[in-house]
Design a protein that fits this description.
This protein has ten helices and 15 strands. The protein is an alpha/beta fold and 338 residues long. It has two domains: 2-175, 3-Layer(aba) Sandwich (Peroxisomal Thiolase, Chain A, domain 1), CATH 3.40.47.40; 182-334, Stage V sporulation protein AD (Peroxisomal Thiolase, Chain A, domain 1). The strands form three sheets. It has a seven-stranded mixed sheet with strand order 1-2-10-15-14-11-12, with helices on both faces. Helix 1 (52-70) packs across helix 2 (91-97) and helix 5 packs parallel to helix 6. The radius of gyration is 18 Å and the shape is globular.
Length: 338
């Protein structure tokens, strides 16, 4: 059963298994360094739908169906689905999953949603509240640009700190059986707001929250970055990753040889002209539910500390001159249950 370790970390004694996982992405992501890792690459970013938003729902539905299928189950055997996205009222996840006829727990953690949903699903399994849950999320470059910045037709100049929203979705089936990888512990993070208001600099808004959650996790567990094969942040990009290493360095934690960022793994930023790297809910979801889980399953990685980061903003908050609070959630993943 779940036990509290330190102040905010929850250790899951049963070590719930990632029984199945899948990632579906768009054309640009399929041209990046991780192309061979993804389950499905769509050459048409509309996925045959009438709008970008409907395309995002189709993308998420694809990832969920594939993850369940790869685990050897059917949707009717699921107990809960934990999912969310960046769109208003989480319509991407809502309409992606409405036909599954499975209890739906809608979550909003912005780009931290993959860690949030994975942590919640694992806790439900560990506490015997469920036998099988799906954790999933998605994003789409075009739907995010239309909602948070400008329509694509505007053709605005991108700043050097701006990141490229990933067109992608990831899903993981968390269960009480399966060959792994396994969820060892979860730390849900606090909101941290240092007054950043620039919507084109998400890395700076999210890095302080990532530093706070990591510091909490290391303190709670008595571990350090050296105890993990990889400390994987969600999508801080180039700017946020530098800030994170600097902030934790001041606290005595050296991330340099352990830290990787999903936003820097999914694209070749220079060749693909993606600015400071990838972003969006689908960034960490698609990297985690392909490249990372697969290496844990094979034993190439023994343990990974996954920290997805989110900027808790909306068009409404920006219009009112609000700053951008950041949040980060950590999930410790192991190759073996024992």
């Amino acid at each position: 059963m779940t036990e509290r370790v330190g102040r905010y970390t929850l250790r899951l004694r049963s070590r719930p298994a990632i029984a199945g996982y899948a990632a579906a992405v768009g054309k640009k992501e399929g041209e990046g360094p991780l192309a061979a890792e993804f389950d499905r690459i769509f050459e048409d970013n509309t996925l045959g739908e009438e709008s970008w938003e409907k395309a995002e729902s189709a993308l998420l539905n694809t990832a969920v169906q594939l993850a369940v299928q790869k685990a050897g189950f059917t949707p009717d055997l699921l107990d809960y689905v934990f999912a969310g996205d960046l769109l208003n009222q989480s319509i991407g996840a809502t309409f992606a999953l409405r036909d599954l006829s499975v209890p739906f727990v809608g979550l909003f953690g912005a780009c931290s949603t993959m860690a949030l949903s994975l942590g919640m699903a694992a806790i439900f399994v560990d506490t015997i509240s469920a036998a099988r849950c799906v954790a999933a999320t998605s994003s789409h470059f075009c739907s995010a640009e239309r909602q948070f910045r400008f329509p694509l037709e505007y053709g605005g100049q991108r700043t050097p700190t701006a990141q490229w929203t990933v067109t992608g979705a990831g899903a993981a089936l968390v269960g009480n059986t399966g060959g792994g990888p396994f969820v060892e512990s979860v730390t849900f993070g606090k909101m941290v707001d240092l007054g950043i208001k620039d919507a084109n600099n998400m890395g700076a808004a999210m890095a302080p929250a990532a530093a706070d959650t990591l510091k909490t996790y290391f303190s709670d567990t008595g571990t350090s970055p050296a105890d993990y094969d990889m400390v994987l942040t969600g999508d801080l990009g180039e700017t946020g990753s530098r800030l994170l290493r600097d902030l934790l360095g001041r606290e005595g934690y050296d991330l340099l040889n352990r830290h990787r960022d999903c936003g820097l793994l999914i694209f070749d930023c220079e060749k693909q002209k993606t600015g400071a790297g990838g972003s969006g809910c689908g960034c960490s979801a698609s990297v985690l539910c392909s490249y990372v889980f697969e290496r844990l399953r094979r034993g190439n990685l023994k343990n990974v500390l996954f920290i997805a980061t989110g900027a808790l903003m909306s068009p409404t908050s920006s219009q009112q001159g609000e700053s951008i609070p950041g949040v980060a959630h950590a999930v410790c993943l192991r190759a073996n249950r024992g």
